[in-house]
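Below is how a single chain appears once it has passed through the pipeline. First comes the sequence as given, then the structure the pipeline wrote out for it. We keep one example in the README because the format questions we get most often are answered faster by looking than by reading.
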Amino acid sequence: MRYLLIALILGITLAPLVRHDPALAAQAAPGATLAPGSQSRLEAGSAVSQAAPASPLAKAAAAPVAKTKPNMPISIGMFLAVIAITMGIVVWAARKTRTAADFYAAGGGITAMQNGWAIAGDLLSAATFLGITGLVTIFGFDGAIYAVGPVAAFITVLFILAEPLRNIGKYTMGDILTFRVPSKTVRGTAAVSTVVMSMFYLLAQMVGAGKLMQGLLGIPYTVSVVVTGLLITLYVVFGGMKATTWVQIIKAVLLVVTGFGLSLAVLWKAGMNPVGLIDSVATSPAIQEHVRMLLKHPLPQAGFDYGQRFLEAGLFLKDPLDTVSLGLAGVLGCAGMPHILMRFFTVPDAKAARNSVIVSLFIIGAFYILTVIMGLGTALYVTPQKVMMFDKGGNMAALMLAQLFGGGAGTIGGDLLFAFLCAVAFATILAVVSGLVIASSAAIAHDIYVNIIKDGKADQRQQVKVARTTSLAVGLIATWIALAVENMNVAHLVAVAFAIAA
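Resulting structure:
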């Protein structure tokens, strides 16, 4: 019976991958990768909207669109500020990283509050900030469903994983599995699966960073990826887990403050009335027109409430199996990602591990609510038509909303907020990729080299040297592969990573 259950879960989880059509999937938008199976359907939805006859209302909604690219001096200044701050953290952390425990787990000296923010920083990727906001903007309620799985995942982590992981007191997935089954084969398998999962997710983030810098700063994709790879390699090689932790904390704070500010602006414009905001969305002519295009209704159908349809399920995830699969991939996938699980080795005791999950759960849950508010606000005040003109996947939605509230394109305020959000998205990618690199290097150095090749007989100095060497190798290999997969659908890589982790 249990084998039938396992087969059923795997079948449901992998279902969207089997049905995935690369012909429909386009490149991920700047700085963002969407959740499993989403990009192909986004392209399809966009194709529907373009194929259907456009009414005068739709043309009017899409016509007066100014440039969305930020002021170059402001943008470059923002990016340089992010790089300078994070590199300062690396220099500080490098002086405190001497042992293997320092490198892999920050010496176990991270507090519950700090670790909670770092976990949030690890999970809240550019896909969360840009991708889910865009999904809500284009597909309404179905976009909000993407926020449910990761929050539920941390309930699983809280009750099942956090305390046992900390009590083991090691560094990797291999340490966890060999605690009960001491076997080099088990450790080696865990190390290989950790690297595979991390690499799929890492590549998606690297390509996203390259597209972000290419699209918004005009820097060639090759240069963008090389710069990103160089930065994250320096973070991990010299700063280890301590530097990675503080980069994640700062990035999470920036992300939450930014999301809160934009959501507050949306609610302020709606009279601080969330119900009124939802009513305005349902009665918006532009949104009604957009839904009609998605449903392939050449002419409005009498008695059909297109605005209400935007607030109901089924515009995006039309097959119930997709919804079930998304839930399993979100809950089990997030709870199985190595760079998330490694965070529980950084706190001093099991109580701190549990408390850090609670802190991160509140932060992540609150931020997902903010993404829904931002998505609805963008749909109402920017309109889905304008967002999809610049990016069919909707990943420019939050950036365009910030530019609107800053005064519009071409204004100092608009360009400043636009550039600031671009810099925050870039910091988001750097933080997530750093966590993935350190998880991969730990699996190679600690599991394969120290415990399999050296049979656990390696001094601290040698372990740190090998860890830094493998971090350098992982960073260089990831950069090289990211250059080769520029035109690959990175959303599919994320889907594979989450399915394997689940």
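Residues 221-269 form the longest helix (49 residues).

See the next section for the split statistics.
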